[in-house]
Amino acid sequence: MRLVSFAKTTGQGFGVIKNDGIVDLTGRTRYSSLRALIAAGGLEEAAKIAAASEPDVALEGTHLLPPIPDPGKIICVGLNYHAHVAETGRKLTEKPALFNRFAESQIGHLQPMIKPRESDQLDYEGELAIVIGKAGRRISEQDALGYVAGYACYNDGSVRDWQYHTTQFLPGKNFNGTGAFGPWLVSSDEIPDPSALRLTTRLNGNVMQTATVDMMITSIAAQIAYISTFTTLEPGDVIVTGTPGGVGSKRTPPLFMKAGDVIEVEIDRIGILRNTVANER
């Protein structure tokens, strides 16, 4: 099941993609958002409604939002592929490197990825995102995948000079419009083994990054176990699981995104997250 959040004239909607349209669940359930639906354990209900309904709006032309526009937490994992660790020249840490994103920095599929006025160093980072489906603390690795509601593509757009002002990544990871999330959320029942997924990032049609999820240093299950040790993971929380090697800032010469560029993150069994880069107005 592919789930989306989208803009409506009356506010935000959410629903299930069926054929070439969206079955709008906003008025068919008691839930106010996709996050609320997930928190209430409503995915099975959503599937039943979608199966019995015709689409309400066409997918093409609909303004898609990040699948979860209002996550309580967005936790990103850095330096999680050996090739990326090597190209950065950093040392491999015993535990995963983590940083936060804010919800306000996110955009959806086909929405402009914004290059800020303060920098010409906007870089791409194709990643797999997971959305938590139920609350948990000190989750075991064995049980971890059972806490996942679904999977999506993510482009952790990074403003490199601001990222490296200090050893803390936060400023370079939170400029408005730099975190692309989508194109939709694929429910976890359709992806029983996320380690088999292949991720590919393309800039203007040229492959920049490619890797399989099983190449991660810290697996998805281990990420969930580690993070849930120090904080309770709640339904709708997002974990962005790390980028492979091939980022633009570590190429010779460096290759940063500019206005008019088209950046795509494709993951098997999920789809293609596509965004065009635009200068900040």
CATH architecture of the largest domain: Alpha-Beta Complex
Please identify which CATH superfamily of the largest domain we are dealing with. Answer: Fumarylacetoacetase-like, C-terminal domain
Number of strands: 18
Count of discrete structural domains: 2
Instruction: Look up the CATH topology of the largest domain.
Output: Fumarylacetoacetate hydrolase, domain 2
The dominant shape is globular
Largest sheet: 11 strands, mixed
**Parts with pLDDT < 50 across at least 5 consecutive residues:** none
Q: Could you explain the architecture of this structure?
A:
- This protein has five helices and 18 strands.
- Strand 14 (198-203) and strand 15 form a beta hairpin.
- By secondary structure, the chain is mainly β.
- It has two domains: 2-58, no CATH class; 74-279, Alpha-Beta Complex (Fumarylacetoacetate hydrolase, domain 2), CATH 3.90.850.
- The strands form three sheets. Strands 1, 2, 3, 4, 5, 6, 7, 10, 11, 13 and 16 form an eleven-stranded mixed beta sheet that branches.
